[in-house]
Each structure stands twice: as structure tokens, then as C-alpha cells.
Amino acid sequence: GQNIDQPTEMTATEGAIVQINCTYQTSGFNGLFWYQQHAGEAPTFLSYNVLDGLEEKGRFSSFLSRSKGYSYLLLKELQMKDSASYLCAVRDWRNRDDKIIFGKGTRLHILP
Amino acid sequence: NAGVTQTPKFRVLKTGQSMTLLCAQDMNHEYMYWYRQDPGMGLRLIHYSVGEGTTAKGEVPDGYNVSRLKKQNFLLGLESAAPSQTSVYFCASGEQYFGPGTRLTVT
Fold first, then answer.
1. Residues forming beta bridges with residue A68, ordered by sequence position
2. Nearest CA-CA partner of B14 in B68, B85, B66
3. Calpha distance A82→B96 (Å, rounded)
4. Within 13 Å of residue B12, how many CA atoms lie on the same side as its CB?
5. Among A50, A80, B5, B95, which one is least packed by beta carbons within 10 Å?
6. Which residues pair with A109 in a beta bridge?
7. Dihedral over Cα of B49, B72, B62, A48: its sign
8. Could you give the CA distance from residue B103 to residue B101 in angstroms, rounded to a whole number?
9. Cβ-based contacts of A105 with chain B (< 8 Å)
């Protein structure tokens, strides 16, 4: 099966940097996604990593290490609007069975 | 270009009633997914489809059925609703696009 772990909650200060970690265990890894979800809304796509390394997109960056089963989402210059849940999801491909499984999400609180 | 739409947005059912949730996409995606989201549980995969005419079970398929007769539509059915199926249901098209969600309450 799959196992995806991320912290339940984190708190950071406006203007600071925060790193949200995600560890996973799966036998058919085929990519890792990060999404942002504001309360009462649908998730929105942030990033996708399939190869090791860092992907940067504006204030957000995502890192992947396949050998360690580890990823992180880095948010810089935090703004109040970044208060949301951040969801880590893994694409698992085995025996022509291709699905995307989510962790439970990390709720990020931004303090002024 | 509407992206991903879900109908209905809200619904209240009595235990034992049936209903169908519709997800429609206009992006020509092969892959479509149905998830449910409950407090503290994250998004859990119910069923998914990798193309027209195909469906597969996810993590929590019991009590649900799906059909993908047309590429643009993915239907989720509850044959006999139970209070444990009270949840927010999200459809996803491809890996990047989610519908707005359906809030279902079963009393």
C-alpha cells in the first residue's frame, strides 16, 4: 500500500520562510504533487516533481529525493493569504493501476 | 471553457436514498478521479478512470459505483446512502484540476 506523512499543523510569521515536509512509502512511485487548499474551497495545483531536485516557481519551491522518499514545499516571503492547508500527493503506478493518493494535509497558520 | 464542473453543489439525503453526482470536464483529459474529504482525513480516493469506458477502485470504494460512458463525464453513484457518507466530494480531471465540490449530508 501507500503511506504519506506530513505534519498536521504549522505556524509561521508573515514575511518569513516555512518548509513543509512530506515523506512517503510506495512501491510504484511515479511523481509527487503539492496542492494548496483554502478552507471551504477546492484544492489548487502548486507543483509536480518526478525527478530529484528543486523546482522553483515564484515564492514557492518544491524538492524531491526519491531515494529517501522525501519531499518538501518551501514558501518564501509569507503573506497572510498563504494561510491554508497544503496537501502532498503521490502518483502510484503498478500493474497498469495508476492513481494519485493524498496525505492528510498540513494546515499552515500565518501570524502578522 | 468551464474547466471542471460538479452538480449538485449541495444535497441532503435520507438514509437509504440514492443519488448520482456528475462531474464534467471540457479539457479532453483521459484521467478523472472522485475523492471524498472529511475533517482530519484528507482527500481519500473513491474511484478513478483512466479513459472512457474504464473505471477502477481507489482507497474507499465501498458503497459507491461509478461510470465513464463519455470521456467528458464521470458519474459517482450512491445506491443506498448512509450517514457515514456525509462528506465533501471532489472530482478531479487530470492531475491539476479540481471541481468546486459537492457537500452531501445523509441524515
1. none
2. B85
3. 19
4. 1
5. A80
6. A11
7. positive
8. 7
9. 42-43
Pairing of strands A44-49, A29-37: antiparallel
| Angle ∠(A29,A31,A35) on CA atoms, nearest 5 | 130
Give the containing element (helix H, strand E) for B1: none
Which residues of chain A does B48 touch, with a Cβ-Cβ cutoff of 8 Å?
99-100
Whether B103 contacts B13, CB under 8 Å: no
Q: Would you give per-residue pLDDT tens digits along chain A (112 residues)?
A: 568 999 999 999 999 999 999 999 988 899 999 999 999 999 999 999 999 999 999 999 999 999 999 999 999 999 999 999 999 999 988 766 778 999 999 999 999 9
Whether residue B61 lies within 8 A of chain A, CB to CB, comes out as: no
The per-residue pLDDT for range B5-25, each reduced to its tens digit, is 999 999 999 999 999 999 999
Query: Do B45 and A100 count as a contact with CB atoms less than 8 A apart?
Result: yes
Chain A interface includes B43 (CB < 8 A): yes
Looking at the complex, does the CB of residue B27 fall below 8 Å from at least one CB of chain A?
no
Beta pairing class for B32-38 and B65-67:
unpaired
**CA B19 → CA A5, B7, B8, B22, B85, distances in Å?**
34, 11, 10, 10, 12
Is A50 in contact with A65 (CB distance < 8 Å)? no
List CB contacts (< 8 A) between A30 and chain B. none
